[in-house]
Amino acid sequence: MDDWLSEYKEMIDDCLKTKSREDRLTEWEAEFLDSVETQMVSRNTISQKQIDVLERIWEKVTSRG
């Protein structure tokens, strides 16, 4: 997997693998992250729009507050 894909995979793991962060996700966000993760594995790519949404979700669930 390319380095940039590994970075996004880590962001997804940050969101889904930590219970306190996972609790901050809407159902749609959790499903989106699962879908993007599957696409990264099968196609080895994601779109810029998917990256933008992933970054917004990651910022939301990793922020303190």
Structural write-up:
This protein is mostly helical. The chain has one domain (3-62). Helix 1 (3-16) packs antiparallel against helix 3 and helix 1 crosses helix 4 (48-62). The longest helix has 17 residues, at 27-43. The protein has helices at residues 3-16, 19-22, 27-43, 48-62. The N and C termini lie far apart (33 Å). The model has no long low-confidence stretch (mean pLDDT 91). It is 77% helix and 0% strand.
Would you spell out the secondary-structure blueprint of this structure?
Layout: H1 3-16, H2 19-22, H3 27-43, H4 48-62
Topology as a string of helices (H) and strands (E): HHHH
Count of beta strands: 0
Considering DSSP H and I runs of 4 or more, what fraction of the residues is helical? over 70%
Strand content: under 5%
Q: Could you report the average pLDDT, rounded to the nearest whole number?
A: 91
Number of discrete domains: 1
Rg: 11 Å
Name the overall outline.
Answer: globular
The main pleated sheet reads as: none
Q: What are the segments in which pLDDT stays under 50 over at least 5 consecutive residues?
A: none
Structural class: mainly alpha
Count of helix runs: 4
